[in-house]
Amino acid sequence: MARHSDSEQEEYSDQYNESEQEYSDNDPMSEDDNDEESDEEESQDEQPDREHMEKLKRSLAHVSFEQLAEVQDKMGMKEFSKARAGGVDKTDSTKNVRTVSKAQILEDVKGAVSKLDKGARIRRTKNDMKRASKHSPMEVSSKRAIGRFREVVELNKPKVRDPRFEKLSGHFNQDLFEKSYAFLDDYKKSEQDLLRQQIKKAKNPERREELQQLLLKMTTREASAQEAKRKQQLKRERKKAEAELVKQGKTPYFLKRSEQRKLELMDKYEKLGEKNMDKILAKRRKKNAAKDHRRLPFKRRSE
């Protein structure tokens, strides 16, 4: 066999090395190996950061909503959701890490966690309770301090009682009350006479108006009291007549409220007299005529 020269051997070795390099560049398995090695290196680098993020997420469970809102305002909604999810954007198909720097997120989250006092919530001060604007409602804490001296067993404390409204003092008797304090009616009449004299002597119109208003209040109050007394008297008379009928063996009969009002109205008109009755009826007719006039249709315009 013919031997090759040294120069030919060197050329063959160079060509073989070049072909091997081309094959290694085109080989997909070698690329996958390189990618796996790079992914392993990245995962090893990211593992301590992820562990730290998990610790911070567990500690964030005790952070107040106000502090979380502050961190969210600083970072933005999208980046904040990424940080809470673990620091990776799930929308990306690749394994790229989020663009925002992890140092910034870790710093913001650490600032929120550092405000906690050994896992307990921070007590809010008066400055924290201030409103953001005058239109927003004021935020008030629902916590209340427990008193040092608590009553475990409640003691029987003496209660203040008013004998006027106690059952032990007996039932209220309207008739007895009116008889006992009947002298007050004379005092009220004398006060009204005195007010009338002061109204005549008063020169200041404002003072006179005040006295007239006071006299009007007293007269209306007296009229309503007299009306109540009249109704009470009618009620007593009906009860007395009904008791007599029951004694005779008849069944008891109780009037309806509408019938009671009719009897009271009839008694009122009987005591007024004919002249006063005519005046009242004339006023009532005038009032009813005005109501009927409002309901009538308007006259049509002539075409």
UniProtKB/TrEMBL annotation:
One of its GO terms (cellular component) is 90S preribosome. Pfam families: RRP36. Transmembrane segments: none annotated. Residues 8-46 have a biased composition (Acidic residues). The keyword rRNA processing applies. Its main location: nucleus. InterPro entries: RRP36 (IPR009292). Residues 47-57 have a biased composition (Basic and acidic residues). It comes from the Eukaryota. GO terms for biological process: maturation of SSU-rRNA from tricistronic rRNA transcript (SSU-rRNA, 5.8S rRNA, LSU-rRNA). Keywords: Coiled coil, Nucleus, Ribonucleoprotein, Ribosome biogenesis, rRNA processing. Residues 1-58, 221-243, 283-303 are annotated as: Disordered. It is found in: Nucleus, Nucleolus. Associates with 90S and pre-40S pre-ribosomal particles. Component of the 90S pre-ribosome involved in the maturation of rRNAs. Required for early cleavages of the pre-RNAs in the 40S ribosomal subunit maturation pathway. Belongs to the RRP36 family. This is rRNA biogenesis protein RRP36. It comes from Lichtheimia corymbifera JMRC:FSU:9682.
